């Protein structure tokens, strides 16, 4: 029974239960893609059906992680199949559990408004945005935003963070950012704003079909 209802894996060399960060990132990417696509249906089609399915699945998946075992989470199982050949990157389970509790709260809030009340508003929009930001940072950057709140509620020292960010260490040469790189980044941001300012009207013009017969006749 303890093997069913459990959180984290016992791995030799680690004094607390751990999880595989590679699987977590892959699962976050799956959820991000599903949530993002469902929001596109709302924005362009005013179709709320996909988001209702995604929210229901999202909540069920996170409840399995928290109240039963992450090993039985459908997204984490699928993620394990995808990244199974990659070397595991172990992270501490306690902070991940706290982050996923936040996920349960957010998805339960969405479930209440979208499924039970069948309503939407600023609250649902803000919660959706928060979920997307959390999932994006986890899947793309490997940064667990929810884990950052863990020390505010627990006195235990956070251990085994993704990328070893919990440990104070000197950056390797390949990780350092030079002044010239910062200047290039600032210049590129300025280029983006300048492009928007100068070419916005041009970019807003609808492109024509090069192979359209009507367009060919008009150009004659």
Number of helices in the DSSP assignment: 8
* Ends distance: 79 Å
Helix content percent band = 55-70%
Number of strands: 2
How do the strands line up in the largest sheet? 1-2
* Structure classification: mainly alpha
Name the assembly state: single chain
Radius of gyration: 23 Å
Broad shape: globular
The run of helices and strands is: EHHHEHHHHH
Please give the largest β-sheet.
2 strands, antiparallel
Please state roughly what percent of the residues sit in beta strands, choosing from under 5%, 5-15%, 15-25%, 25-35%, 35-45% or over 45%: under 5%
Topology:
Layout lengths: L17 E3 H25 L3 H19 L6 H10 L6 E3 H24 L5 H20 L8 H4 L25 H25 L9 H7 L1
Antiparallel strand pairs: 1-2
Helix pairs in contact: 1-2, 1-3, 1-5, 2-4, 4-5
Describe the structure.
This protein is an all-alpha fold and 220 residues long. The protein has one domain (18-171). Helices cover 61% and strands 3% of the residues. The chain has helices spanning 21-45, 49-67, 74-83, 93-116, 122-141, 150-153, 179-203, 213-219, and strands at residues 18-20, 90-92. Strands 1-2 form a two-stranded antiparallel ribbon. The longest helix has 25 residues, at 21-45. The protein starts with 17 loop residues before the first strand and ends with a helix. The relative contact order is 0.11. The mean pLDDT is 90.
At a glance:
The chain has helices at 21-45, 49-67, 74-83, 93-116, 122-141, 150-153, 179-203, 213-219; strands at residues 18-20, 90-92.
List keywords for this structure.
220 residues, mainly alpha, two-stranded antiparallel ribbon, 2 strands
């Amino acid at each position: 029974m303890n093997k069913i209802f459990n959180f984290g894996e016992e791995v030799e060399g680690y004094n607390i239960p751990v999880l595989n960060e590679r699987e977590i990132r892959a699962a976050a990417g799956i959820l991000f893609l599903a949530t993002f696509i469902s929001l596109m249906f709302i924005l362009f089609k005013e179709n709320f059906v996909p988001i209702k399915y995604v929210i229901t699945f999202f909540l069920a998946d996170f409840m399995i992680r928290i109240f039963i075992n992450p090993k039985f989470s459908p997204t984490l199982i699928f993620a394990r199949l995808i990244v199974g050949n990659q070397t595991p990157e172990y992270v501490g389970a306690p902070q991940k559990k706290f982050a996923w509790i936040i996920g349960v709260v957010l998805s339960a809030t969405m479930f209440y408004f979208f499924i039970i009340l069948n309503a939407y508003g600023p609250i649902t929009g803000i919660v959706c945005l928060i979920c997307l930001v959390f999932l994006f940072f986890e899947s793309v950057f490997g940064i667990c935003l929810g884990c950052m709140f863990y020390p505010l509620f627990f006195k235990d020292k956070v251990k085994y963070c993704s990328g070893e960010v919990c440990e104070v260490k000197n950056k390797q040469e390949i990780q350092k950012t030079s002044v010239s790189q910062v200047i290039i980044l600032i210049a590129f941001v300025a280029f983006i704003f300048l492009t928007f300012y100068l070419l916005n009207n041009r970019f807003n013009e609808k492109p024509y079909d090069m192979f359209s017969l009507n367009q060919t006749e008009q150009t004659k």
